Amino acid sequence: MDVTVVGSLNVDTTVRVARHPAPGETVLGTGHFVDTGGKGANQAVAAARLGHQVAMIGMVGTDPAGDLLRRVLSADGVDTSAIGSADGPGSGMAVITVDSAGENTIVVDPAANSSLGVEHIERFESLLRASTVTLAQLEIPMDAVGVAARFAGGTFVLNPAPAALVH
């Protein structure tokens, strides 16, 4: 595998607004759409569209959103066989507003992404060791990122977003 991504998978709902609401305020949108996202899924799709062989290691819920995420990544040529299913929480989601100046606000509920544990990563050690590049981000648990970094056989790249406080 050229690239293995260890990261988040979300379904995003984006609403266009003239301006962002103040706390406690409701504003009307001027259109919306639903799409797949998550920093991990976005990295995987981008690398696949650039012609690389890409595998995704992540976690989705056992809901229609999880099925959608797998289908969309597969359609873009991403190997989804290392995406697990979390029994409890649904798939991750993000609610995004974009104002007329193009500025956005994003709220992410990691949901199943928070279930991506060390044990799941360990099952794919050989995949990580064989990959030329391993990509990760901080929308998944920090211990999962750490294990992925230790197993990375090639270059390990971390997108440190969203910013996390480490205690």
Molecular structure report:
This protein has 167 residues and is an alpha/beta fold. The chain has helices at residues 39-49, 64-75, 118-122, 125-130, 142-151, and strands at residues 3-6, 10-17, 29-37, 54-61, 78-86, 92-98, 104-109, 133-137, 155-159. The strands form 2 sheets. A 5-stranded parallel sheet has the order 5-4-1-8-9, sandwiched between helices. Strands 3-2-6-7 form a 4-stranded mixed sheet. It is elongated. The model has no long low-confidence stretch (mean pLDDT 95).
In short:
This protein is α/β, with parallel strands linked by helices and 167 residues long. It has helices at 39-49, 64-75, 118-122, 125-130, 142-151; strands at residues 3-6, 10-17, 29-37, 54-61, 78-86, 92-98, 104-109, 133-137, 155-159.
